[in-house]
Amino acid sequence: MSEISNSKATVVEDCRGVLHVYNDGSIVRSSRPSFNVPINDDGTVLWKDVVFDTALDLQLRLYKPADDSAGSKLPIFIYIHGGGFCIGSRTWPNCQNYCFQLTSRLRAVVVAPDYRLAPENRLPDAIEDGFEALKWLQTQAVSDEPDPWLSHVADFSHVYISGDSAGGNIAHHLAARLGFGSPELDPVRVRGYVLLAPFFGGTIRTKSEAEGPKDAFLNLELIDRFWRLSIPIGETTDHPLVNPFGPYSQSLEAINFDPILVVAGGSDLLKDRAEDYAKWLKEWGNKDIDYVEFEGQQHGFFTIDPNSEPSNKLMLIIKQFIEKHLGKVRVMTREQSNISKQASSMHCPKAVLNCNCNKSFPFDADNISCNFSEPATELKFQTFKNKKNMFKPIKWLQDQAVSNELDPWLSHVADFSGVFVLGDSAGGNIVHHLAARLGLDLGLPSWHRFGYWRLCLPVGETSYHPLVNPFGPNSKSLEATKLDPILVVAPGSDLLKRQDRGLCKEAQGVG
């Protein structure tokens, strides 16, 4: 904190009452945070501070669940605080409370670094400090004597970098620098980025900036003030560190990014810039870019009130994003997906139709229903009354795909262009007949098949019935049917193994 050099000096820049810049060039920072809220430390999360840059005396705060008795390593979630590059700290109550939430609800080790603030330290200092925090993490990963507080629980191969507002800007520049796979940090592996209301700018106003309310939490006056104090002296908001798509910025088209989740509030003046950011990256071939918008929410809604309904929904979305890139792809629960259509751009890569038989949705007048299993990525269907009914769940799914009023529980997460059908035993038989009927219209992995014929065959029929033996004497030839790829699985001790093997040979024999 610097002292006022002249008692007659007047304030020319005021950032939320925490930072005052005077007309004589002096700067005064308050020791109190701009968010005067209680710290909700209930003991379920452990934390401590660590110096990651001794030369600059920069610290980060580490968090981990108090109950790590499961023994498995946890992903690392880096949270870079916001504040327009001018204010904010890992020690502020709003930041600490949000990190408590992230740690407990994501089941992750959270790393919250500080960085140098403007105007004393203008950009790119904050971005360089963010990178140094990652280098500290890399040092821990390769050290012969790492901090056991971290190394015993952290999975350095599954790191996620998140930033709030100015922190989101830093996260973007880290993503662009590190590229896909973050080889520069080996053995630390970044798996994805979460940009929470990222702080971008430009000399040309966006619609949300120009038409946004003047009393917004982050209004245009404060946005401009933050940029005046943080960008290099003499530069404009088209500086590449401010405007990733500005006239002086290097094209991002050639960069292969790791997955990125971009989040914005519908009433945030920065909304358009966040949406454009996600759109441009996706159009340039980075397919794993998701944009989620929360209707009516202001800038930073998730730290202002981390227990609100939108904040809870956001936490579930972040959790799904992490699980997806941990290799645990899951469909959102009904609670997760009950979000406005603006928050519906995240899709599961596949829907799996499981021809077996737990939450029911009727899809047929004959009272057949399908079950949505939580949290697995599958739709389970009840047993069908007859051959005709086998096809009804597929048609129901097609109706959902083309409907103008489809069930948002499904539509918010399902990719109708990537459907697989799974059948277990008798369900595998059903899958075969669906494959034969649909041909190239659907991908159909299958499970082993057949059983209980006396109970389910049409009265008077034998196991040579076409629905039982696809290559029997009474069966229609499949030679003219071009099938999608089929995977047949049979346990070695299964009595049906030889039949399954024979069926595969017969199918291959007809091309």
TrEMBL record:
It comes from the Eukaryota. One of its GO terms (molecular function) is hydrolase activity. Coiled coil: none annotated. InterPro entries: AB_hydrolase_3, AB_hydrolase_fold, Carboxylest/Gibb_receptor, Lipase_GDXG_put_SER_AS. Residues 78-302, 390-438 form the Alpha/beta hydrolase fold-3 domain. Signal peptide: none annotated. The active site is at S165. Belongs to the 'GDXG' lipolytic enzyme family. This is Putative carboxylesterase 15 isoform C.
